[in-house]
Amino acid sequence: MKWIRAHKFVAGIISAALVLCLIIVFSYLNGGSAGIAGGQIEKAVALIQRPIAALSYGIKDNILGFRNIIAENEELKKENAALKTEVNNLTLTERDLQELRDLSRVLNYDVAAYDRQIVSANVISLDGTNWFNIITTDKGSDDGIYKDAIVVNGDGLVGTVMDVGSNWAKVISTIDETNKVSFIVLRDPDLVGIMQGDGNGGLNGFMLDNQAGVIEGDLLVTSGIGMYPMYPKGIEIGKVTSVSYNTDTQLKTVTIEPSVKFINLRKVTVII
User: Fold this and answer.
1) C-alpha to C-alpha distances, 114 to 50, 152, 252, 272, nearest whole angstrom
2) How far apart are alpha carbons 183 and 174 in whole angstroms?
3) Cα distances (Å, whole numbers) of residue 149 to 117, 200, 230, 231
4) 270 and 140 in a common domain
5) pLDDT greater than 80 at residue 97
6) 161 and 222 assigned to the same domain
């Protein structure tokens, strides 16, 4: 009795099943006719069967509904993933387009006059000091890159290729102390100078004419003349942050902030 009281629902199902078995046996013994007593029993059983059937259908419906919800959720996940991929692709496409726009601005029209081609490459390592004097890319001689090729990005001059393999190239940046570049002042191309890295992530330079009227804020670009390797004319180098006169050397010197943000460098273009 304690078990029945503790398991009323299960006991009810077992009782209903026993009654159904008795009806089947009774009906079989009476040729399929339950008679008056059997009819009353069937009526009582029907009352029991209704809630059981309703419960059974409800459970089935809930299971099917749950399965449908899971299926719909999976479909939504797939759609969401597809949309994220599409958004990412659009973002990357727009970023690449912006890089090409910036690159066109930096290269001006002089590179086209030299009939040069370009190869885009990803930066895979930044070596040397904290100022990333040496940069390694994922493109090399198999892509037409060669030693002393000029390297730029959307902001300006990055450096030159110092060593190359079949699928990699090492680039010495403009901020390296050994890398010298001839420049002109964009505002006045008659103002010519030479600059090199200062060892601290910046650039130092001097004007060939110690009376040159260079001023703070002047934008400097490659001159296209003078030193090897020969940089195409018009590639942006940086902006003058200070001007001074060295009495010992009798040279007008300039401090330059590079246009390229080397710490954030992730993609470059090699002019071949």
Assistant:
1) 91, 16, 32, 10
2) 12
3) 11, 24, 9, 9
4) yes
5) no
6) yes
The residue written with tokens 């059997």 in the block is 38
- Is the CB of residue 37 less than 8 Å from the CB of residue 27? no
What integer pLDDT is reported at residue 113 of this predicted model?
A: 45
The per-residue pLDDT for range 42-84, each reduced to its tens digit, is 555 555 555 555 555 555 555 555 556 656 665 665 565 555 4
Interior angle at CA 11, CA 8 and CA 17, nearest 5: 145
- Count of structural domains, the chain: 2
Task: Assess whether pLDDT exceeds 50 at residue 224.
Answer: yes
Last residue of a domain, one of 83, 107, 131: 107
| pTM across the whole model | 0.60
- Indicate whether 100 pLDDT > 70: no
In which domain, by residue range, is 144 found? 116-272
Domain check: are 94 and 137 in the same one?
no
Cis-peptide, bond into residue 229, ω within 30° of zero: yes
Distance, in Å, from the CA atom of 131 to the CA atom of 222, rounded to the nearest integer, reads 21
> Are both 8 and 36 inside the same structural domain?
yes
Q: Does one domain contain both 121 and 252?
A: yes
